[in-house]
Amino acid sequence: MFSTFAILATIFMTSTHGNPMISVSDEPARCCIPKLFSTQIRISSAMLLLDGKSMISYSYNNFSYDASRGLVRMRGVTFTEPDHTQINMWTIENQINGEIYTINMDSNTCYKSINRVKPILCIPDTAMYVHSFTFGDGDKKMIGDTWLIRMEDYVNYVTVSRDGRCVPLTGHYYFHNPHDVNTLIMSDFMPQINDLSIFNVPDICKTEV
Fold first, then answer.
1. Residues of the signal sequence (predicted)?
2. Which residues pair with residue 145 across a beta bridge?
3. Could you give all domains of the chain from N- to C-terminal order, each with its CATH number?
């Protein structure tokens, strides 16, 4: 899922507390993100449009992921510039068939698209270890390891926790075409989803083909 809806995790104050960064020779173990979780995610994006103009957006969302069914759900508020809009959005993605339903809850409309980028759920062998950070303070510290993942259409600097859970902490995505930059931050991580019905596609989308 280090792709369309990138992920990160509980955000604290980031600091090295005077400790040296881990060297590349001390490369940490690669890991796979949790198979079931819910979290809060914030996304900042900047895109260069085909007409040469730029568009930026910021959103905060409730995010849920169920690997057993290949389902992603994100619901929240998106702010865009330069058109000064605020939209209540709801997105459901089926990572098995690539279907994405994007619902504008203000206009009560649904748009169906296909995501052809396969998610990366584990740090691949081809990823390059970059460095590590310490998140938190006092006796509540967590090490995050940053990896560089290069794909055909984008590169991603993703940071995951080293506590055995591989919780995504931050993601920085750089897409080549169109030119698009995304930064993602996740917080309030929970290793469960209380209501699985949130993945149900609403009736308004069932006429979309």
1. 1-18
2. 132, 160
3. 14-18+28-48+55-189 (2.50.20.30)
* Model confidence pLDDT, tens digit, residues 69-126: 999 999 999 999 988 999 999 999 998 888 999 999 999 999 999 987 777 789 999 9
Predicted pLDDT of residue 120: 77
pLDDT of residue 25: 53
Report the SS3 class of residue 152: coil
Q: Are 145 and 158 in contact (CB under 8 A)?
A: no
| Cβ-proximal residues to 133 (8 Å cutoff; 6+ apart), any chain | 14, 15, 16, 143, 144, 146, 159
The closest of 12, 102, 96, 99 to 61, measured between CA atoms, is: 102
Strands (E), the chain: 14-15, 36-48, 54-66, 71-81, 85-94, 99-104, 109-114, 128-137, 140-150, 154-161, 168-175, 180-190
119: three-class secondary structure by DSSP:
coil
Closest of 154, 90, 72 to residue 117, by C-alpha: 154
